[in-house]
Amino acid sequence: MQSARPRPSEPTGRALLKGLAFASPFIIGFLVLYLWPILASGYYSLTDFSLFKAPKWVGLANYERMISDAKFWKSLYNTLFFTFVGVPVDIAISIAGAHILNQKLKGQPLWRALVYLPSIVPAVAAGFLWRWLLNAQYGFVNEILRWFRIPQPNWLLDASWGGISVIVLMLWTVGGTMLIYLAALKNVPQELYEAAELDGAGPLRRFWHITWPMISPVTLFQVIVLIIAFLQVFTQPFVLSKDPGLGTQTATGPGDSMLSYSIYLFQNGFTFLKMGYASAMAWVLLFVTLAITLLILWSAKKWVFYDNR
Amino acid sequence: MTTAEYQGAALGERVPVGGRFGWLMTIYRYALVILLALVFVFPFIVMLTTAFKVSDEIFMAPPELLPRTWTLDHFIGALTQIPFFRFLLNTVVIAGLSVLGTVLVSPLVAYSLSKLRWKGRNLLFIMVLATMMLPPQVTLIPIYMMWNKVGATGTILPLVIPAFLGTPFFIFLIRQFLLSVPDELIEAAKVDGASEFRIYWSIVLPIARPALITSAVFQFVWAWTDFLYPLIYLNEEESYTLSIGLYSFLGEHGVQWGPLMASCVLFTLPAFLIFLVFQRYFIGGIATGALK
Fold this sequence. Notes:
The complex is a heterodimer of chains A (309) and B (292).
Chain A: H1 12-44, E1 47-50, E2 53-57, H2 61-67, H3 70-101, H4 108-116, H5 123-133, H6 140-147, H7 159-171, H8 175-186, H9 190-198, H10 203-231, H11 235-240, H12 261-271, H13 275-303
Antiparallel strand pairs in A: 1-2
Helix pairs in contact in A: 3-7, 3-8, 3-10, 3-12, 8-10, 10-13, 12-13
Chain B: H1 3-20, H2 22-51, H3 55-58, H4 73-81, H5 84-114, H6 121-133, H7 137-149, H8 157-164, H9 168-179, H10 183-191, H11 196-207, H12 209-225, H13 228-233, H14 242-253, H15 257-277, H16 279-287
Helix pairs in contact in B: 2-15, 4-15, 5-8, 5-9, 5-12, 6-9, 10-11, 12-16, 14-15
């Protein structure tokens, strides 16, 4: 777009040089830390290769091996479980919490800070803390469930609860999303609610017909960001499942229930030194991420409302 | 319905609610928000009180929140059983250099992407966006091989150099901020014959201060809490960060919950202090939607 007063004209060649000069660190960074590694990873995925062994071309063998690798499927299943349970719950809690924070309250900055606080805790410290909280005997989570006479699962040692434990830990840092929704709620025009109230719409109908469509662009963006984050989850299950008896070796939770895709990829690359196989797994992750993201973007026209006033 | 009626009705609905049940609603609102805050904060309280309990009390079923006897033993244990200060220093160096790299380089690139007009600028911006979306797992192994080839694995270089090549998230954040700065400021300086770098250094950077602080505090917390990359690159105990140090603590000594909770408290404290001081920059960064 042309501004009212054009910038003093400058030869295009000079402008190009200046632009490139200022951007040069990232151009180097892009080539060295992104473009080349992506291409190299694609090549590695077609080879048999480790730290001590030069890449040897094997074609699609790595990808074929995944089909019969039970642990690969288990890790993919776990990660999709984390994602498809964790992300909707994350969004629901965020929207509910944002409504609570959006009421007329004194001390707004304090409430916002308390909700966001867990997000700055180092993931390793958070993992250890929740291992303690979820401890079946000494932990407070089961103690609180006991007060309410709710059955207390053996969170970290029962294969059917391991995945849920990971999700619980990840939900502790839901505050960031909640604050984004709080900002979104504040942007919904008040007149809409007043008009709906006049028409006799109750709180549920007001939410469904006003709030939900008005915040749906935020929901779309958050769903995508959260899905990408959940698909890559590494540290939380890695710390939750660490078996102290096994030295530096990683445990993967009861019945491998905490083995995330990224943990298995990491193990293949850096523990078993099957770097070709790990690279192939990385590419599958990239495609799964892309496919889910595109699916959600495609579905967006059915449920995302853009206010074009 | 006329506008006057509409407004009157809207007002008429609001007044009695505030009048008759006002105090009840106020209690309800605060009860809800306190409950919400408690869910997030309660784990911290457990971390803190567990760290002050004597070992026998830690293993008590059912658990009690407050220690019967308060002790500092676990903090002393945390500082002496592992080379805590070594790990702390390593973490400070890595986090400090990452922050330095971020504030030196990311705004340079952001300036080029927002205030300079050149052919290929849009393409470069698309590249920034694309790298933000890329799962880091894809580049993990080739980048590891690259650092291995130049003999940099085991050093902190792989952990800090990327910040000196511009971090896509912060480039994006600062660019968005600079777009809202009027061009007139820059053009006036240009007419006065100032060089592009001088304009950048003495006009643009001071204006961009809020975005720079936001980037710096997020970079600090990311580097402070990072686990995967130190795990991959640091293999000698003397170069461990606190994340890796605490993690191995569990492996070598079995679970000693007292010292472990005490070191988690000490590990969280600096990030907590940074958050307290720079709270509005954190919240501001989140509100842009780019960071979390």
